[in-house]
Amino acid sequence: MKKKELAKYEARAQVFKALAHPARLKIMDELAVHEERCVCDLTEVVGFDMSTVSRHLSVLKNAGLVGTEKRGQMVFYRSTVCCLTGFTECVENVLNNNVKQQQAALKA
């Protein structure tokens, strides 16, 4: 693989790594439904303490998946991508297909 091509795939891998945690997936789902949330709201939704949620948000922000807006003392987070909904639907289809294949294998 050439350097330029490798860099492209490494950059893609960083985005996938940012999504590779259940809490971060939940945060992205929440931001897809509710256009923006503060850390305190996301803490309640995810069920982790504020510092843990903040670290997860930092990972998502560094990957370019969320943006921030500071209002007074509060920071609000919002998704910067709209394509994840289609991607997560694709993942759900893969999971459903895997279950069907496993059920078929058990019947055989």
From TrEMBL:
<dbReference type="InterPro" id="IPR036388">
    <property type="entry name" value="WH-like_DNA-bd_sf"/>
</dbReference>
<keyword id="KW-0804">Transcription</keyword>
<keyword id="KW-0805">Transcription regulation</keyword>
<dbReference type="GO" id="GO:0003677">
    <property type="term" value="F:DNA binding"/>
</dbReference>
<dbReference type="InterPro" id="IPR051081">
    <property type="entry name" value="HTH_MetalResp_TranReg"/>
</dbReference>
<keyword id="KW-0238">DNA-binding</keyword>
<dbReference type="GO" id="GO:0003700">
    <property type="term" value="F:DNA-binding transcription factor activity"/>
</dbReference>
<dbReference type="InterPro" id="IPR036390">
    <property type="entry name" value="WH_DNA-bd_sf"/>
</dbReference>
<dbReference type="Pfam" id="PF01022">
    <property type="entry name" value="HTH_5"/>
</dbReference>
<feature type="domain" description="HTH arsR-type">
    <location>
        <begin position="6"/>
        <end position="106"/>
    </location>
</feature>
<dbReference type="InterPro" id="IPR011991">
    <property type="entry name" value="ArsR-like_HTH"/>
</dbReference>
<protein>
    <submittedName>
        <fullName>Arsenical resistance operon repressor</fullName>
    </submittedName>
</protein>
<dbReference type="InterPro" id="IPR001845">
    <property type="entry name" value="HTH_ArsR_DNA-bd_dom"/>
</dbReference>
